[in-house]
Write a structure and sequence with these properties.
The complex is a heterodimer. Chain A contains 17 helices and eleven strands. Chain A is α+β, with helices and mostly antiparallel strands. Chain A has a six-stranded mixed beta sheet with strand order 1-2-6-3-5-4, with helices on both faces. In chain A, strands 7-11-8-10-9 form a five-stranded mixed beta sheet, sandwiched between helices. Classes of the chains: A alpha+beta, B mainly alpha. At the A-B interface, helix 4 of A face helix 4 of B.
Chain lengths: ~450, ~110
């Protein structure tokens, strides 16, 4: 590490002849070798999981992952996670809002929050030397926020802006409605603050949610380009404010329903799903392979998607522009699998029925070994490429640390993908075909069938 | 005023303060000391942060005092604000606003 920094300093100094004469660089022939490291995972007695990987990068990334997604919202504090996402820069016990913002900016770092239905992820990235500074702010934000009443009410315009932006995307509307229709509790909560709670989520709600859900046993501290012992020390000293398991989330209950969102859009978005498997199970792996078998997006930009069974099937039903792909998402205790179609309003019924017929064909055994190999290769490719970015790698490490307390190596995951057989895939398709369906549609609903008509 | 005064409250000091408080006269209109603060930018921000019930109480007291002053009257003696009951409700928020402003200015100087 020191050797490499020396080399770059030398190359800029060579502009000044005097500096070049003075600088004696010994060890120019020295070739510094770095051994590739594995991900290290430790579980502290308080339940906190620490995971880190030394990737020799000049920039470090640290994330605090908490099991505090919107599935843990209760009926009286709906929308609290949306506010929490926006509240990461508010005053904490150790630093005011101004100081957090300027302090992180001063070292050229980034503090951001992402939340999914299961997890809340606070990430900082900065140069390797400035880890201490930004770590202090990260710890402050995750363990000691003050949620001052006026600062929280100042967030209301930002909530409204987020919702307005989300409303512009038909995909977000359909997927949120899909979950709302599919589940009775937990997973039906939306990522966005519901309309009746905008302006009504108070500081007390935020405090209570943090108190109940940000406990040590539900958190993971993950670092890229950070020393494992440093992280473990930080975890032991600072992240054990609240111990215990907090309030246990409810088990998600699938109900299957339908939501129709009428609109004047010229494109009809529709998703038809049924319950699949929980993440981490072998069935979930089979569903992932099935998703790629049926077609999960373009692999060649602006291409004809010739390898996607869904696209080929629907192309026979309509000549108008359309798009279709398989939808698959898994959560810790449930999952959704189905098809997502975008079509012209008049052709909607034909498109949806053709897509579902393709899945039925797979269920009845219409899959060749070549298709299966292709699907597995595509799934492996997508998984491996998601680990190429530091964001993707951090997220993968963190979600695995939270879910299982360990990290599955890439080889293990590839082996699991290879172990999926033809029968697994057709069983997965059968589960979809016979399961109770949930449907969400948005746009001009003139020719859109109801869920019991498809 | 309270923050600058020495903490030691000998009987003489307290007596002097009480006498000055009565001399000011705003307690005869039912006002508290923080109701009479001049509203500059800092005070306006501190008022924005007041919890709603305290803000409503302040508005009521101000309205009552304005009404009395229009009628050239004062409250009956048993309704005057007592020195002991004078609650500095705005001072913590005001101090916080000033502290934040100083922090910003310190940062700008660097």
């Amino acid at each position: 590490m020191k050797g490499i920094r020396g080399i770059s300093q030398l190359s800029t100094r060579l502009y000044a002849a005097q500096a070049a004469r003075k600088a004696e660089f010994t060890g120019a022939a020295e070739h510094v070798t770095f051994q590739p490291q594995d991900v290290q995972v430790t579980r502290l007695p308080s339940g906190l999981v620490i995971a880190s990987l030394e990737n020799y990068s000049p920039a470090s990334k640290i994330g605090v992952f908490v099991k505090a997604g919107c599935r843990y919202e209760t009926p009286d504090n709906q929308g609290v996670t949306h506010l929490l996402r926006l509240a990461s820069n508010l005053t904490t016990k150790g630093a005011s809002s101004f100081k957090i913002c300027r302090g992180v900016e001063a070292v050229g770092g980034n503090l951001s929050v992402t939340s999914s239905r299961e997890n809340m992820i606070y990430t900082v990235d900065c140069l390797r030397d400035d880890i201490d500074t930004v770590m202090e702010y990260l710890i402050n934000v995750t363990t000691a926020p003050e949620f001052r009443a006026w600062e929280v009410s100042d967030l209301t315009p930002r909530v409204k802006r987020d919702k307005a932006q989300a409303a512009q995307s038909a995909q977000i509307a359909v997927i949120e409605s899909l979950h709302e229709a599919a589940y009775k509790n937990a997973l039906c909560n939306s990522l966005y603050c519901p309309k009746h709670m905008v302006g009504n989520v108070q500081s007390g709600h935020l405090h209570q949610f943090v108190q109940n859900n940000f406990t040590s046993s539900r958190m993971a501290l993950v670092g890229l380009g950070v020393d494992h012992t440093v992280l473990t020390q930080v975890g032991e000293q600072f992240l054990n404010i609240r111990s215990g398991a907090g309030t246990t989330g409810a088990e998600a209950q699938y109900r299957g329903g339908e939501i129709r969102l009428p609109g004047i859009s010229s494109l009809l978005h529709s998703a038809v799903v049924s319950q699949s498997a929980a993440a981490g199970t072998s069935e979930a792996m089979a569903f992932s392979v099935l998703q790629h078998l049926l077609g999960a997006g373009l692999h060649v930009k602006r291409g004809s998607c010739a390898s996607s069974k869904l696209v080929q099937g629907v192309a026979k039903a309509t000549t108008d522009p359309f798009d279709v792909s398989a939808f698959n998402s898994s959560y810790s205790d449930s999952g959704l699998f189905g098809v997502y179609t975008i079509s012209q309003p008049a052709a909607a019924g034909d498109v949806i029925k053709a897509a579902l017929a393709e899945v039925k064909a797979v269920a009845n055994g219409g899959v060749t070994a070549a298709d299966l190999t292709r699907a597995k290769a595509q799934l492996k490719g997508q998984f491996l490429m998601s680990l190429e970015t530091s964001d993707g790698l951090l997220e993968a490490m963190g979600t695995q640390a939270l879910a299982k307390g360990s990290y599955c190596s890439v080889e293990e995951v590839s082996k699991n993908i290879d172990n999926v057989s033809l029968t697994d895939v057709s069983n997965a398709a059968k589960t979809f075909v016979t399961g109770k369906k949930t449907m969400a549609s948005s746009g001009n609903l003139i020719k859109t069938p109801f869920v019991d008509e498809i | 005023m309270a923050s600058r005064a020495p903490a030691a409250t000998g009987r003489l000091l307290v007596g002097a303060r009480k006498w000055y408080y009565g001399l000011c006269g705003f307690n005869k209109l039912g006002l508290l000391r923080d109701d009479t603060i001049l509203e500059d930018a800092d005070v306006k921000e501190a008022l924005r942060r007041l919890p709603e019930n305290q803000y409503n109480d302040r508005m009521f007291r101000l309205k009552r005092a304005l009404d009395l002053s229009m009628k050239q009257q004062i409250l009956p003696k048993d309704q005057w604000t007592k020195y002991e009951a004078d609650f500095r409700y705005l001072t913590p928020y005001l101090e916080e606003v000033i502290r934040e402003k100083n922090e910003r200015e310190e940062w700008m100087k660097k």
